[in-house]
Each structure stands twice: as C-alpha cells, then as structure tokens.
Amino acid sequence: xxxxxxxxxxxxxxxxxxxxxxxxxxxxxxxxxxxxxxxxxxxxxxxxxxxxxxxxxxxxxxxxxxxxxxxxxxxxxxxxxxxxxxxxxxxxxxxxxxxxxxxxxxxxxxxxxxxxxxxxxxxxxxxxxxxxxxxxxxxxxxxxxxxxxxxxxxxxxxxxxxxxxxxxxxxxxxxxxxxxxxxxxxxxxxxxxxxxxxxxxxxxxxxxxxxxxxxxxxxxxxxxxxxxxxxxxxxxxxxxxxxxxxxxxxxxxxxxxxxxxxxxxxxxxxxxxxxxxxxxxxxxxx
Length: 286
Description:
Blueprint: E1 23-28, E2 33-38, E3 45-46, E4 59-60, H1 68-84, H2 87-91, E5 99-104, H3 116-129, E6 137-142, H4 150-160, E7 164-169, H5 175-182, H6 188-201, E8 204-209, E9 212-213, H7 220-235, E10 242-246, E11 260-261, H8 265-276, E12 282-285
Parallel strand pairs: 2-5, 3-4, 5-6, 6-7, 7-8, 8-10, 10-12
Antiparallel strand pairs: 1-2, 9-11
C-alpha cells in the first residue's frame, strides 16, 4: 500500500490516494471524520450522468465483475492500518482522526455490481472481526434506480442489521430538471416505488444536491414540486430519516462544469427551513 503524498482533506476525494482498486479513504465534510470508501465502479461507469459529478472520464455503464478476494484483502489491510498502524497520525488532520463510516460510493452506481449482496456480506464479516469497528455505520450512496433488483434488496436487508443507512439521491422533482441535472428519464412514480422499497428495508435519507446553473439556483417552480413530492411521501407514511441537503464543494469533471457554481449559504439555509416545516430532519452542508 502506497502512502498518500499529503494530508487528506474534505475537498479531495481521489479514489487512488492509497493505490488500491476498491478501497479509498476520504475526510467527509458531512461526518467530520474518516470515511472508508468502497469503489465498486473502478471502470468509471454509471447508469446516470449527473452534471456535478467529479468522476473523470465518466461513461455510461455498470460496475465490472468484482474480485471479492481482492476487495477483502484490501479492506482488511487498510482497516488494520487505520486501527493499529500510523495511517491516522501520518495522513489525517488531528480533528478528523476518527473512523466515521464505511461508504459504498465510488465512481458509479454501486448497486449495479452483480455481487452487491456478497459485498455487503463480506463487509459485515470484516466489521465483525474488527471489534472496535463493529458499530460504525455502513452507508450506501445510491441513485436508487436499481432498488427493485432482488440482490440489491437482499443487500439492504443485511445492511439494516449492520447499522446501515441508505442515502438515496433525489436532486430534482420535475422530469425536465432530472433530465438536465442527472441525465436520466426515471419517473417520479418509479422513484416513489423505489423509496417505498428502500425505506421498508433499511433506514433511508434523501440526498439532494443544489447549486446554481448558469448563475441561477433551482427555480421556485422546481422547489415547489420538490416540497410537494416530499410532503406526499410523508402523507404515505414513508419512514424517511430526513434530508441530506448539500451544495457542490468540489469541481465537476463533466462538460457542464463551467456552468455550475455554489448557491449562497443563506439560500441553502432558507430551503432547509422550508423542508423542516414539513416535519423532516434536515442536515445541511454548503
């Protein structure tokens, strides 16, 4: 394992910091500690193409076959470095020297991996073997588009037994805006159905990214549609944990990058207050 050349920070989520295929450390601005990333898409392939995505050379597609033996070796080795080695002292600022979670994210949609259920089981076994890590969170960061797959649902059920959470991407409520921002044609009806499945299997947060595009934040029409959709979920008694509301902190590597900029902190806080008024918990990160 090759050591990083400099301290980890919240603005650099490079997947090759430690020279591994599947495992990479980041400092999560939302968590305030080290998040152990699991990248099941080392081929930079995803079934969506979000305009704010920081993945280089992103292409449409699915995760490749996962070498489960290699993933296990990498994760066990890296956890050993974190828990018993000097990785924290050498590479992490003092304030962030705590392990917050293991996060399935990476360079594409992690649930597109055929071995998803096996990956969850593998992580559970490894967590069990590292006593001090048995209670840390396991987070799935997903666009939710493949939740209907039986293997994904089996993985979510197992996650729920492992202090797991689903962070379900929902950036825009209007069809034309999802097409523009996420380059997907998924319908609100399908999103609702997939959220019903996810929330029934594992604690689930909605994760929403907001930003200015060509100088303009999401329109009032879009915000109204978003709030109406969230309210409808609550009226249907979907047990959402809340909303993870955040802005763009790192440069996009997509063709639209020059069109994107941050919303103001005041704008983000105001949107958060409107969501809270619906009765949901909101966690903000500019």
